[in-house]
Structures are given as structure tokens and as C-alpha cells.
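User: Here's a protein and a ligand (6-O-phosphono-beta-D-galactopyranose). What would the complex look like?
Assistant: Let me lay out the input and then the predicted complex.
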Amino acid sequence: MGLRKDFLWGGAIAANQVEGAWNVDGKGPSVADVATYKPNVDVKDYKKQVQITQDSIKQAMATKDTTYYPKRRGIDFYHRYPEDIKLFAEMGFKTLRISIAWSRLYPTGEEEEPNQAGVDFYKAVFKEMHKYHIEPLVTLSHYEMPLALAQKYNGWADRRIIDLFVRFCRTCFTTYRDDVKYWLTFNEIDSVTRHPFTSAGIIPDQSDNLLQDEYQAFHHQFVASALVTKICHELIPGSQVGCMLTKLTDYANSADPRDVLASFNKNTMNYFPADVQVFGRYPELILNYFKKNNLHIVMADGDLEILAANTVDFVSFSYYMSMVSSYDENNLTLTSGNTVVGGKNPYLKSTDWGWTVDPVGLRISLLQLYDRYHKPLFIVENGMGAQDELTSDGKIHDDYRIDYFRSHFEEMIKAVDAGVDLMGYTSWAPIDLVSASTSQMSKRYGFIYVDEDDLGRGSLNRYKKDSFTWYQKVIRSNGEDL
Ligand code: BGP
């Protein structure tokens, strides 16, 4: 069988991790611009890594320094996008997933009219992609919102954000209607409870009841996502809108039924936001979880109808690792879980950052998602963070990365052979960029090396890694030559 003839091979990046130019041409500060480089935090403690307070934001905004705020500088994609897109085209990309920085179009989120320089920037980026017949896949919210909205409203915890986001999206649809057909609403929508600031602009010490605010934010994002899906379909005939979840595939630690129960709970919480976006309603178990935990989600009249009437066209997801759950006597209800890295799995190796490498897990994920949702799937992130060495003759021998991708592609193809309808695959990330969780540059994902270190030193020159030519061959053969 093999992959579709029109399989969308490509790569994925996000505005806040590549663009830089955080305060030029009218862009306002975003939540990403106050994220600090934290080299010494235990990578297993995801919550600590992304911890943010009202004070840390004030401190960050008192300086224009980019050394310790790497997302402010990214990899200078803002100025170098023609060179980068040309390299993607050389690999044969059919698609490129990017995101639009809300704060580049609406600096504080509340302007009536968009910032023209921001609008023009993305127009130019799309033009460059089309020059090489690269189909844009655009995320409307990828770990980025105007900082002002986080400070003033506590982000998505406040219902007023819905209208502001809809205004931003409407601008995107009207301006880029001829450029973009594939849209995603919220990146890794399930992550609100894992890192509320990055994902929803919630400043934890500004919340009286953090868990309540997180679930309220979920609800607002669901409504916003549904409204935006409707508007997109109206404004761009033939467009397709997808949801995007982090597929944190969880295994029971043993055949002990109680471990199986723990794992079921974990997976159910992981699926829930996509369930709402695909089925158009809240799962009963989640509504009961709200009740049991005294969470009172305020829903306006008509919200449930909006969710029901505007479900997504396809399901996209990121897949990096699998996790393991064990029974915990003190925790018998569904839990959101606050770590990304689960228990140890003796059958799997891990990356230097402790993320398990589990290609079969990708196949399992594809089968599970297709069986659950019966919608076309799109792998929009998958890859391995590693430290690379640039040799004196400008080469990077990254066999480990090739091995990672090869093993994942083999399993992906087996899932397609089993009947999964898969639209495409975009690697995270085709070019080295600033890490979302650690703000490191040294956690490298790309087929293209960027000469920049954690503190922003380097020429920013781009170099092709060995994996560059390998991926080019994979795309050319539509996955037959691995
Ligand atoms: C996902 C995010 C991306 C990306 C990736 C790798 O969660 O959607 O933005 O960064 O993970 O994570 P990290 O950069 O922390 O290694």
C-alpha cells in the first residue's frame, strides 16, 4: 500500500522559537519573550522549567537583553526566511508548518486594526513558500499570545480573550485566504494544565484557584477553536481545520489491573481536549472529574451548541515519547498529571533529555487515534533533541538522528498499511531552533544546523547535516527508500 501519492512531507517550526525580532516592526512582547534560559533545572521537572511569576515577568520586561531570553532572538528567521525556505525546498518539502505570532499582528491583543508590518511579513513568507510549491500549514496559537493579555486578564482564564482571538484569526483568514488552506487552532491543546503560562497565558501567582483557571481556560479555547473553525470554513472555501494534541501514549507499568487503571486515567486526560474538538462535546468522565474536584466551569448559553456544530476536519498531533504509569493508592480519580516524562520503561532507551525513544509507540498512537476519531490524521511534530558537533570542515554527522527518523517512519508506514488515513508528516524541527521547554539552542532537532549557542553566540550560519540528504531521499521516494 504505502503512503498516499500526495503525502505532505515537510517540517514544523513555531514563530516564537525561530523568528527573533521580538520588538521590531511594531511587534508587541509575547508570553514567550519572558521565558528564561534555565540550564540547570532538572529536565524531568517540566513544571519548574516553565515556572513564571508576576515578578519574573517584571524583571524580564525591565531589560531588552536577549542572552537569557533566547526566544527573543530565535534563529533570526524573521530576516533569514528566504534562505531557510530555500533549504527546505531543496529537501523537497511539500509542506511547512509555521505559526503566526498573534503579538506581531496585534501587539497588545486589543488593537482594532492589525499592525501592517506584521501582516506583510507573513504574506512574504507565504509567497516564498509558494515559489517552491510548499503548502503552508499554519498554527494560529503556538505557545504565544500578547503578554499584555496575560497580565491584564490572566490569559485564557478570562472569557474576553475569545473575541480578541477571533478578531486575530479573522484577520489571518481574510488576509491569507489565497495562501493557506490548512489551519490548526491550538498547539498541543492538552498542555494547559502542564504549563499554563506558555499554553494559556495564565500567570500562576495571579490565580486564586489555578486548577479552576486552567480548566476554565480549556473551555474558552474550545469555544474559540470552534468559532474559528466555523469562520475559516466560511471565509476560505475548501479549507481544512485541525486540532492538535500532544500524544502522550501511556503504558501500564505491569499487567496488574490497577496499573492498567492508572494508565487508562492518564490516557483519558490526554485525549479529553481532542475529544471535545472532534466529537463536539465533553466526555462524561471529564464532567464527573470536574464535579468531584469542585471545578465549576462557567459556560455561556450557546457554548455547547457552538462546540457541537463546529468540529474539526482532521486530527493532528505531536509524538515524541511514550510514558509508563503505575497505580497510586492516593490517586484513584482521573488526574491531569504534571510531568511529561513518565516512569522508566526498561524496554526503551532515552535521549539526553530523558525522553524515551519509542518508534512502535508512534504506530500504536496512530492506530489508537484513528480507531478513536475516524478522522484523517496528520503527524505535525516528531523528532529527537540531541547535541550535535560541527566538524572543522562544516559537517554534522548525525547518524543517531537518521536512525531515529528511520525507525519512526518504518512504524508510521506499518500503521498506514493497517488502514490509518494519514495526510502527512512534518518533522520537529527541520532546522535547529530554541527549545520550547528549556530555551536551549543546544537541544538540536534540525536537518539544518544553526551556528548559535545557548547564549546567542555564533555566526547564525546554516549547515546541512548528514540527515539533510537522507530526508531529501526519503521525500523523493515517498518513504520507500529509508
Ligand atoms: C512541543 C512543542 C514544540 C517543540 C517540541 C519539542 O511540545 O509544540 O514547540 O518545542 O515540543 O520540545 P522542546 O523544544 O522542549 O524540546
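Summary: The CA atoms of residues 10 and 93 lie 5 Å apart.
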